[in-house]
UniProtKB/TrEMBL annotation:
Residues 1-26 form the signal peptide. The keyword Transmembrane does not apply. This is Expansin-like EG45 domain-containing protein. Residues 25-133 form the Expansin-like EG45 domain. It comes from the Eukaryota. The lineage of its organism: Eukaryota, Viridiplantae, Streptophyta, Embryophyta, Tracheophyta. SUPFAM superfamilies: Barwin-like endoglucanases. GO terms for cellular component: apoplast.
Length: 133
């Protein structure tokens, strides 16, 4: 009879642990990059925002509600055969400053500098996990 509470506790701990991993891992998507000049932007006009920036696709642009929000982006793999292992193993935090134009090829369009932190730019497009911070 004493094993039932132990099993229940273990199951509860496992569920909580998996939920926490899910929160840390973030949402899956793809990233591309764009090059300077980074102004004007849809969110801040000609006000300079640095280089750790990104443009949001329609996936989370939400009529401009994404402006100024910060996301941690991590490369998770290649999307093509050109660069089979593009990821550097690092993550980058970017601020949404723009709207990715119609036909955008990624979930998020990182600045060239931000993309280079997490992946080889020769890849062009990568698989990512991202989460708002």
């Amino acid at each position: 009879m004493t094993t039932m509470p132990k099993v229940t506790s273990f199951v509860m701990a496992a569920v909580v642990g998996l939920a926490m991993v899910s929160l840390v891992a973030g949402i899956s998507g793809t990233a591309t990059f764009y090059t300077p000049p980074y102004t004007p932007s849809a969110c801040f006009g000609f006000q300079e925002q640095g280089t750790m920036i990104a443009a949001a696709s329609d996936v989370f642009w939400n009529g401009g509600a994404a402006c100024g929000k910060r996301y941690v982006v991590t490369c998770t793999g290649a999307t093509n055969q050109g660069v089979p292992r593009p990821c550097t193993g690092r993550s980058v935090t970017v601020k949404i400053v723009d709207h990715c134009p119609s036909g955008c090829q990624g979930t998020i369009d990182l600045s060239q500098e931000a993309f280079a932190i997490i992946a080889n730019p020769d890849a062009g497009k990568i698989k990512i996990d991202y989460r708002q911070v």
